[in-house]
């Protein structure tokens, strides 16, 4: 598709959690490199990362400016940590996604007004991460009180999904329910009951609260569906699902405009204007990891090949960050193994194991990183142990590393089930694994070649789909066709 002489502005909006922001920041970097003028409406806690992508940063208003690290250090209610993960997820959805909606909306409209003031003729293409609800009133009849900035400025929008798709399907139970994918007649009947009888009741407070916040923001109607049915996706003309088809259940009722867009994770493709190859991490033990990998390149007859150690990488993620959940059990599981190196990633700059337990002693075969590029280290890994975040799964797929997962909360249970279903790893079925569970899971992955074979099939899928080119081409299509705002059930 030909590139117009003057491209529209790109405005990116995203939920404030690191796992949601990170893929959009990579997309921002790729679009900037391809000549788009990118603006990013986001949280001030991540301003430096956003600006490093080449985007111009626009801060959210203070009441919508979520600092995800601070949120989990001081959660919204005292008993938060002791609650079941499903209860915590409902709190997070209310406090992180729905409650800030009116303030997000005002910030969003202000951002559009800012861009129009810079050039009234260029227009804006919106890139909307699915769990930023602040633009949703635009599709439900909300109008700006001062002028027609919505109608004249937004040329069109694309939804980017950075989690498993929370879109209702006849073949799936509501997200988080412990039932398998089932497209049979009996399975569809079961799913319908779960949606209409069980989830509708549990979600009713959120369904009502969302409509209340939409009305407060000026929407003329609510979404008219059970919460998490997919309105935040289907409001947009196009839904770009990050990921590969082989990891997702083959449902038959995808909404119009849905397409898999590949991965932002992994080494950049030669045809894409993505970020450069990750730099070598600044750890004094990093050369040991690189040298260990280099043993594979020696001739088969070279006795030094026998010295190569298995590298197990374990990460806790950026939300559930207690190392006793997964990192410490992994260190303990292989502490006495001279043929193994364990690289543990704590997930936050300047984090330390001693912060959680001053008695922890690091095994001789363990290498600890406060913060480390997953792509850099997974290039040297044999097994990837993590708590089933969607981004972590995709890093494993992009690098062709089979995995062992143990995680609960938000979409982690769904991701873990798909890891097992797709054959790319072992789901331990818990949030806090024992050292025995981790050891058994890792040994199973190392001994069964089917895990490596299957994940390399998915890795090939990721290599065949250039995510950044897909996003670029979709934005060019919008710039050329200018579909405008699709308002759900309302006359324009």
Give an account of the 3D structure.
The chain has 492 residues and is α/β, with parallel strands linked by helices. The protein folds into 2 domains: 9-262 and 466-481, Glycogen Phosphorylase B (Rossmann fold), CATH 3.40.50; 286-464, Glycogen Phosphorylase B (Rossmann fold, 3-Layer(aba) Sandwich), CATH 3.40.50.2000. It is built from 16 helices and 13 strands. It has helices at 18-33, 47-52, 68-73, 85-98, 101-118, 149-153, 185-216, 231-234, 286-294, 327-333, 374-378, 390-399, 412-422, 435-447, 449-464, 467-481; strands at residues 9-13, 37-42, 56-59, 124-129, 154-161, 238-241, 258-260, 310-315, 340-345, 366-369, 383-386, 403-405, 425-427. The strands form 2 sheets. The protein has a 7-stranded parallel β-sheet, sandwiched between helices. The protein has a 6-stranded parallel β-sheet with strand order 10-9-8-11-12-13, sandwiched between helices. Strand 1, helix 1 (18-33) and strand 2 (37-42) form a beta-alpha-beta unit. It is globular, with a radius of gyration of 23 Å.
